[in-house]
Amino acid sequence: MKTRAATEPSPRVLDTTARLASVDIVIPVLNEERALPGCVRTLARFLGDGFPLPWRITIVDNGSTDATWPVANELAGQFERVHVRRLDIRGRGAALRAAWQDSPADIVAYMDVDLSTGLGALFPLVASVAGGHSEIAIGTRLARGARTRRSLRREVVSRAYNALLRYGFGVRFSDAQCGFKAARADVVRPLMAKVEDDSWFFDTELLLLAEHNGLRVHEVPVDWIEDTDSRVKIVRTAVDDLKGLARVAWSMSMGRARVEVARPELTPTHPDAVVARPLTVTTAKFTSFAVAGVVSAILYALIYLPLRDVWSPALTNFAALVLAGVVSTEANRRWTFHRRTAMHARAATLFLAHYALTTMAVLALPRGAGRLAEVSAVAGTYCLLTLIRFTALDRRAFSRTRN
């Protein structure tokens, strides 16, 4: 047999009848009559020039008061694969929830109307989901390989927020709020049923629930350029995000964040494989996490109260955190799965985050609120942060037993 003939592909390899996963790219818009035409024309041209999967574009106008809706309808008339939908309520989360819930596509995605994220990352984003490797894929501006051009203010806020997620919740993803995401439709729908936020926190809450339930989140480093004509209110969004984090942490601790999602079990590919025993985490360890958290929180309150009679709130808070932190750090040292050096770095970062947030809580109280209100505010914030910390440890251990 000739070499060339032997290496010709089988007809089955060239079979094009296999069904490709379809993709629905959602563009949520609010008063974007200026930016929308350029966005849709650019995106449709990019997809039409060789995007390998069946696609459609869905424009969701959620509460615009300008000419966005007529412009969207005009674009839908010009492009066969462009669809439009209108909501009377505002919020990016509400727009994505409505479009993703009713989409006929296998994969649902979204991007911002300003096209700040380079379109070259779109197929890598979708491919990891279409191939079954991950359930959710996100663009990241903070991972190695990403290139960004944005103001110092947004850079600092973004890194601080994602550091809080990483060290507070123990998440593995690096950028929760990049407006460039894709997900399997059948997986994201049960998750959305648990997501309460309909605004900017929608992305973060969705990702937290995904990792909490053992789903795999794939990251794609992107090129990103800030568009200064943005509808995002940085300070207001940051405050709403902190409130959302507190709510999600409480939901996780109460066991209300578990979702039944379609995810295949981890099984060997080889039929004769000798499989290792899975790592198990005992109930005793979980109990130790909870006990250590409660003890350290009570100890913190007991230390803070008498010292407050002598020192200022900020200094008292610092001393109470140092002394109470010994208990939780020791518990983390005993039960953590990380190396010792990583544990020390994590402890230092957690201390700074605890100190900043608890001090903000006590200083935010109105004058004359009273000592009881002050102690309640700072102790309550400390308890919440401790709860987030040990919830993250519990989630990591749970994830390891599933994987």
CATH architecture of the largest domain: Alpha-Beta Complex
At the fourth level of CATH, the homologous superfamily of the largest domain is Spore Coat Polysaccharide Biosynthesis Protein SpsA, Chain A
Q: Which percent range describes the beta-strand content?
A: 5-15%
CATH topology of the largest domain: Spore Coat Polysaccharide Biosynthesis Protein SpsA, Chain A
Q: Flag low-confidence runs.
A: 9-17, 333-343
**Biggest sheet descriptor:** 7 strands, mixed
Structural class: alpha/beta
List how many beta strands DSSP finds: 9
Distance between the termini: 46 Å
Instruction: Give the domain tally.
Output: 2
Overall average residue pLDDT:
80
N-to-C order of helices and strands: HEHEHEHEHEEHEHHEEHHHHH
Give the strand line-up of the largest sheet. 3-2-1-4-7-5-8
Short structural summary:
Helix content is 52%, strand content 12%. It has 403 residues and is an alpha/beta fold. The protein folds into two domains: 23-253, Alpha-Beta Complex (Spore Coat Polysaccharide Biosynthesis Protein SpsA, Chain A); 283-402.
Record the SSE blueprint.
Blueprint lengths: L2 H4 L16 E7 L6 H13 L6 E8 L5 H11 L3 E6 L4 H11 L4 E5 L10 H9 L5 E5 L6 E3 L2 H18 L10 E5 H8 L9 H11 L4 E5 L1 E3 L8 H20 L29 H25 L5 H23 L4 H24 L7 H32 L1
Parallel strand pairs: 1-2, 1-4, 2-3, 5-8, 6-9
Antiparallel strand pairs: 4-7, 5-7
